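Notes from hallway chat w/ T.B., transcribed later so I don't forget. T.B. wanted the structure written out for a chain they're using in a teaching module, and asked if we could keep both sequence and structure tokens in one place. Agreed to drop them here.
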Amino acid sequence: MAMIKRNCDNCGKEYNADTRNLRRGWGRCCCKSCAAQLREKNKPGYNPERVALNNARRECWTDCPEPERYPLSYDGADFDQWGDCEFGIHD
């Protein structure tokens, strides 16, 4: 098993990679979390602003008060999604 020093494709940190894995197309990142971040960045339609917003929502999910959980609110539209519930249609 031959090892080679290599820089991570995601964070740039130097690590030892197995040459067998490199030939298979694996071992491009220093750890699993960097590999997952690199996969996410390579998806079509990747939007870093949207990822940052989702991460902020995830952090606030249990720690923030109810109104702050959704930075992009729909002015209560999602609480009255059916609109005709008062008529007994969806009972």
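Follow-up for T.B.: Residues 22 and 51 are 29 Å apart (CA to CA). Might be a good example for the class.
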